Amino acid sequence: MVPLRRVLVGRPRSRFQWVIDVLVILTILTGTFGAYALGLFQVSGGVIVLPAAATLVGFVVAVGVGARHSGLVVAWLGLFAAYIGFRADWAFLGLSSHSLGGKFAFLFDPVGLAVLGVATLIIGTVGFAVGYLGRSSIERLRGKALSQQTRD
């Protein structure tokens, strides 16, 4: 059984590896913002609760984090960063008639952040579990194959 702390923060890593994780999270935030700003990611209109492209990017990141066994918190932060990149684009480039204070108020709206937070916990956990269990299964199968080869 894996301890809860190890699932949340991952296996012990160096400070350099933590810095890399933070840089990856910041890259996800700015990359998602840039992709929406440049029109690479589209929003089809209507009421937007969860942007599809940001959700997909964050889910893929969570799967990768799970596969690396880097910790659930890192997976959640990666997905949340994608959502914040979307909201930053919407606030600063989509709400042109609002003041700067109004744009920041939209970006940090507690209700919007709570919705994204709940979605992050659910979707990020599922993505992390897919990656974690997938890699663990592959490692077990490799171990069984190697032990089978040594017996033959």
From TrEMBL:
Phylogenetic placement of the source organism: Archaea, Methanobacteriati, Methanobacteriota, Stenosarchaea group, Halobacteria
Record field: transmembrane: 20-41, 47-65, 72-93, 113-134
Native source species: Haloplanus litoreus
Domain of life: Archaea
Keywords assigned: Membrane, Transmembrane, Transmembrane helix
Protein name, UniProt field: Uncharacterized protein
